[in-house]
Amino acid sequence: METPSDQQLTDDGLVATGRGRILVLACGALAREILALIEANGWSHVDLHCLPAILHNYPAKITGAVQEAVARRRTAYEKVFVAYADCGTGGDLAQACADMGVEMIQGPHCYAFFDGLARFAARDEIFAFYLTDFLTRQFDTFVWRGLGIDRHPELLPMYFGHYRKLVYLAQTDDPDLTAKAQAAADRLGLAFERRYTGYGDLATALEAAI
Where is the DUF1638 domain (predicted)? Predict the structure, then answer.
């Protein structure tokens, strides 16, 4: 499967092909990583459907969007696995998945399962702002323009005044992405740390589910 552009994944997501037995329903921000895992492991029985990644900025909409997608597509598959963590839904997504009888990834958000749930919890980094590969590439869309800082720079201290550092959780060894993440930290006035995670607990969660 050809991976859509980051902007397509942000705005539109990714439509499942309908050729697999198991459907992974994920955030568009995880499409590249999940497709890479499908290819590397030869999971020809797995189909991927992604909701628009921009829902990351509107967590109140995630649960309803997941419910609608599961209801629309589950009859075509033997099993549905939801590749979302809580993602700011306050437990609503977990309850919805339990009500629908589908499994989902554990943890508060994608930063935690990329870093590893136990390690992330142990760090207790309440003053850290996180980026992944996808969010680094889409920093302007999700953060700078997405939060209106480009138009209203006075919002910067309101959004980021309590943060002390930006942690780039890197799924790949890409010097260009590292430079972009460093530049993002500089724009936000934060210290910078790069932490290579690979796919973290995303890989083990998918392996266990499918």
Answer: 50-205
Q: pLDDT tens digits, residue range 104-158?
A: 998 888 888 999 888 988 988 899 999 999 999 999 999 999 999 999 999 999 9
Per-residue confidence band for 3, with pLDDT thresholds at 50, 70 and 90: confident
Q: How far is CA 162 from CA 9, 61, 110, 198, in A?
A: 30, 26, 21, 28
Residue 32 has, within 13 A of its CA and on its CB side, a CA count of 17
> Hey, how many other C-beta atoms are within 10 angstroms of the C-beta on 173?
9
Q: What share of the chain is helix, strand, coil (3-state, %, to 5)?
A: 50, 15, 30
Place of tokens 């290819």: 39
What CA–CA distance (Å, rounded) separates 38 from 47?
A: 9
The DSSP H or E segment spanning 169 is: strand 165-170
CATH number for region 6-108+200-209: 3.40.50
Contact 116, 136 (CB under 8 A): no
Residue showing tokens 């890197």? 170
Provide CATH 3.40.50 ranges for the chain. 6-108+200-209
